[in-house]
Amino acid sequence: MLRTITLGSCVSVQGLVVGNTPDGKLMVRVDDKTFVGYPVTVGRA
């Protein structure tokens, strides 16, 4: 599943989910790199 995570206040990464961490972060893979960050929530108007 494709998900977007935030790595900092201004940096986001979108990739395939490869796992979760106990503190609520997601691990996503982009090419050969894995990033860990908080998932972006969808705001509804």
TrEMBL record:
<protein>
    <recommendedName>
        <fullName>Translation initiation factor 2</fullName>
    </recommendedName>
</protein>
